[in-house]
Amino acid sequence: MLFHATHRHTHATCPAHMPEKRALFVKALNSAKEIGVKIIGSYADAPGHTVYLIIEADTALQIAQLFDPILELGDTEIKPVADSMKLLDQMKEQD
User: Fold this and answer.
1) Strand, helix or coil at 67?
2) Among candidate residues 88, 91, 37, 90, the one with its CA nearest the CA of residue 67
3) Phi, psi angle pair for 39, to nearest 5°
4) Using an 8 Å Cβ cutoff, are 39 and 48 in contact?
5) pTM summary value
6) pLDDT per residue over 6-29, tens digit each?
7) Can you tell me the distance from the alpha carbon of 36 to that of 58, in angstroms, rounded to the nearest whole number?
């Protein structure tokens, strides 16, 4: 399944300004493969202190394992998503 994750933190908890927090964030994302999560894309809005990720995982447990180490850095909202072009193609087939 595909998921869209939005991680937001404040200037006070920004990993860019604290080497130990940055290392924690990088370690969490680098653990994705061993957890069985594929990071399709990762995009940052640095001035907005927001990181957007598209990830693929089979279970909610994998998602929890990926984000658990960085919970203290901010809030993360995770939503299941689907390829909109594939959805439109499926709708055409149903017509």
Assistant:
1) helix
2) 37
3) -90, 110
4) no
5) 0.85
6) 999 998 889 888 999 999 999 999
7) 8
